[in-house]
Amino acid sequence: MARPKLKETEKKSRKKAFRCTIAELKMMNEYCLSHKVTVLHLVKVGMNKYQPPAKATVDKKLIFELSRIGSNINQIAKALHGKNRAVRILATARIREIEDVKKIILEMQNQIK
C-alpha cells in the first residue's frame, strides 16, 4: 500500500533563507545541537512566542497641529532667508512663540511620565 498523497497546502516545498553573522550562526548551531532540535523547530517555536508590537493610537488633532507647526516653521525659514526686514522681524517673533509652545509640550511630556 502506497503512502497517501499530501494536499498541495500540506507539502513542504517552499524554502526561506535568512542572513546572520558568523557568531549568530555558531550560537544557533550550538543551541540546536545541545537541545537536540533543528533550526526549523527553533524558528517555529520562536514564531509562537512572537507578538507583534501594539499599534500606537494616533491623535488626529495632534497630527493636524504638528503639521500646522511644521508649516509655520517652513514659512519662518523662508522669511528669514528673504530680503524683507519687516518680515524677518515678524519671523523672529514667531520663533519666540514656537519656543513657548515647545516649553508647553515638554511640560506635558513630563506630566505624562
Layout of helices and strands, plus pairs?
Blueprint (H helix, E strand, L loop, with lengths): L21 H14 L3 H11 L10 H21 L4 H28 L1
Helix pairs in contact: 3-4
Can you tell me about this structure?
This protein has 113 residues and is mainly α. The chain is 65% helix and 0% strand. Helix 3 packs antiparallel against helix 4. 1% of the residues are buried. The mean pLDDT is 84.
Order of helices and strands: HHHH
Number of domains: 2
Q: Report the principal-axis shape.
A: elongated
Number of helices: 4
Q: Structural class given helices, strands, pairing?
A: mainly alpha
Q: Which residues sit in consecutive blocks of at least 5 with pLDDT less than 50?
A: none
Mean pLDDT: 84
Q: Span from first to last CA?
A: 69 Å
**Approximate helicity band:** 55-70%
Features:
113 residues; mainly alpha; 2 domains; 4 helices; single chain
Give a short summary of the structure.
Helix content is 65%, strand content 0%. The protein is an all-alpha fold.
